[in-house]
Design goal:
The complex is a heterodimer.
Chain A (H helix, E strand, L loop, with lengths): L2 E12 L2 E12 L3 E5 L6 H8 L9 E9 L2 E2 L5 H7 E4 L10 H11 L5 H14 L3 H4 L12 H14 L4 E5 L7 H14 L4 E5 L3 H7 L2 E6 L2 E6 L1 H4 L6 H7 L5
Parallel strand pairs in A: 3-8, 3-9, 6-7, 7-8
Antiparallel strand pairs in A: 1-2, 1-4, 4-5, 9-10
Chain B lengths: L1 H40 L2 H6 L3 E2 L6 E2 L2 H32 L2 H15 L3 H20 L7 H25 L3 H9 L4 H30 L2 H6 L17 H8 L8 H32 L1
Antiparallel strand pairs in B: 1-2
The chains are: A alpha/beta, B mainly alpha.
Chain lengths: 249, 288
């Protein structure tokens, strides 16, 4: 089992409020790591630390290390890091431009030009996000006209077009109906062959359906991490049991 | 009773709303009346196409080409200075400056808008004009260039404040989305934030340029007021607004000269109307 990301004693604060407390865990290559936990448990802070999106917040401070393929991400160029570690947000974040331009946005920023190569990249990304069939005739439509589920898969396509190694999902289905959710989940499972994924979700069932291992966060602490069949059935920690059985919060 | 009160308030608000339209229409009609009676005695072609503005010679000549060119020189040059500087300043305040600097800059720039234009004109006359003359070794510092510098300066607060508002209202999520794809700060600003804020920025530019076209006091004091076609931006020029302001006091009411000044006003009105209309069309397109 190759450890793609290794987090060691990672602690962070906003202002002086502790958000994460000495988190140590590893994300294996080609797995989907689910992260569950109630609000304010630190799950979003955690994945935003993996692509250094927290850097935008000037009150953010951290201790400990995050290693990507054994290299400290906080010593890397942040733009280069975010190219390797993509992110899909909770709210579908279509940029105010056409479907095509949305997907081509990342590759263009990273200096990929040439219509033919861009066309290929866009098609590949849309196919991978299971959006090509719906979108192939609508590439020049404004992305803001798509439905919520389509926009979310468009955001996934946009992330894929940059050809990252890791994809972070921050509650990607929180605003979607069950059918769109099922489509996104299906897509994630297909993508597992090529990518390593971290999925933050409020939906415990989703975590048990999709993830290979699930981590339970509570008040900035990692309580337990295990395969779903154990974490959801025979958790070791009382707090995990209370949460997954719905007795909690 | 309550319904009557409602009725009265409703009518009153309607009246307030319609009042602005009525005023604009009245101003236009008034200008039109005075202008048209002028064109009865003086050919409009000679007016718009004439080079010489000699209102007191005999027979008088009312050619406003030199005035139009004067206004154009000053306005275009001022816009060229104020728009890039203003938008860049707005971007700096909204996106780059640390909190304390942001507050300081915003306050100071808003204060700048509160300075009366006579004061700016006066300061320009005693400081900028001699400086321009010496630095560029010109016969006089009273020139289109000096006027444009000062006017650009006066348009800055409008452009900066409104552009900054537009930039700040771009959803944070757009920015985050771009950053998460590995875009740099500059790429995000240039490709995402500026385009998203463009309608607001265009509006800011329009208002700023509007102020420049209509400005009278400062240009009258700084540009030299020579009614001839300038050879370069470093020549003295006279704008349409300055002509009206300077000569209105010495004309006889109802004389051809008096009416000619109203005709200039009409031309100004038409120009500002065209500028506003084009900007509005662009804005509507940009929003869609």
């Amino acid at each position: 089992m190759v450890e793609k990301i290794k987090v060691e004693r990672f602690t962070c604060w906003y202002y002086d409020v502790l958000a994460l407390q000495a988190i140590t865990l590893a994300v294996h290559e080609h797995e989907i790591l689910g992260i569950i936990g109630p609000a304010n448990s630190g799950k979003t802070s955690f994945i935003r630390s993996l692509n250094r999106l927290n850097d935008l917040n000037l009150t953010f401070r951290k201790q400990g290390t995050v290693l990507l393929d054994g290299k400290d991400i906080y010593a890397m160029n942040p733009e280069a890091l975010r190219r390797r570690v993509g992110m899909v947000f909770a709210m579908p974040l279509s940029l105010p431009m056409s479907v095509y331009d949305n997907v081509a946005y990342g590759p263009r920023r990273h200096g990929r030009r040439g219509k033919k190569r861009l066309d290929e990249t866009v098609e590949k990304a849309l196919v991978a996000a299971s959006l090509w069939d719906e979108m192939k005739d609508r590439l020049s439509d404004s992305a803001l006209k798509l439905s919520g589920g389509q926009q979310q898969r468009l955001c996934l396509a946009r992330t894929l077009a940059v050809e990252p190694e890791v994809i972070l999902f921050d509650e990607p289905c929180s605003g979607l109906d069950p059918i769109s959710t099922a489509k996104v989940e299906e897509t994630m499972l297909e993508l597992k062959q090529k990518y390593t994924m971290v999925l933050v979700t409020n939906n415990i069932k989703q975590a048990s359906r999709v993830s290979d291992r699930t981590a339970f966060f509570l008040s900035g602490e990692l309580v337990e991490i295990d395969v779903p069949s154990r974490l959801f059935v025979t958790p070791r920690d009382k707090r995990t049991e209370d949460y997954v059985t719905g007795r909690f919060g | 009773m309550k319904r009557l009160f409602d009725w009265i308030i409703e009518r009153f608000i309607f009246l307030c709303g319609i009042l602005a339209v009525i005023f604009v229409a009245l101003i236009f009609l008034f200008l039109l009346r005075e202008g048209v009676s002028f064109f009865g005695s003086y050919s409009p072609i000679k007016f718009v196409g004439g080079i010489y503005w000699y209102p007191t010679s005999d027979p008088p000549q009312f050619g406003i080409i030199s005035l139009i060119v004067g206004s154009l020189f000053v306005t275009v040059l001022a816009a060229c200075l104020a728009i890039p500087l203003g938008v860049a300043t707005a971007l700096f305040i909204a996106e780059i400056a640390p909190r304390w600097l942001k507050d300081v800059l915003k306050t100071v720039i808003e204060l700048l808008a509160a300075i009366p234009s006579v004061v700016i004109g006066f300061i320009g006359m005693v400081t900028l004009v001699p400086l321009v003359r010496q630095a560029l070794n010109l016969p006089t510092g009273l020139s289109a260039f000096s006027g444009a510098l000062m006017l650009g300066f006066m348009a800055l607060p409008t452009i900066v404040t409104i552009s900054e508002d537009a930039i700040r209202t771009v959803p944070w999520s757009y920015k985050e989305g771009a950053i998460a794809l590995g875009a740099t700060r500059w790429q995000t600003m240039y490709r995402i934030i500026l385009p998203a804020a463009l309608p607001g920025i265009l509006g800011a530019v329009m208002l700023g340029v509007g102020r420049v076209i209509g400005e009278t006091m400062a240009v009258m004091m700084i540009t030299g007021n020579a009614a001839h076609i300038p050879g370069s931006v470093f020549d003295p020029v006279r704008t349409m607004t300055a002509t009206i302001a300077a000569e209105m006091g010495e004309t006889v009411r109802g004389s051809p000269h008096y009416e000619a000044l109203f005709a200039i006003g009409l031309v100004l009105f038409v120009i500002t109307f065209i500028v506003n209309f084009t900007a509005d069309t662009f804005l509507r397109k940009a929003r869609r």
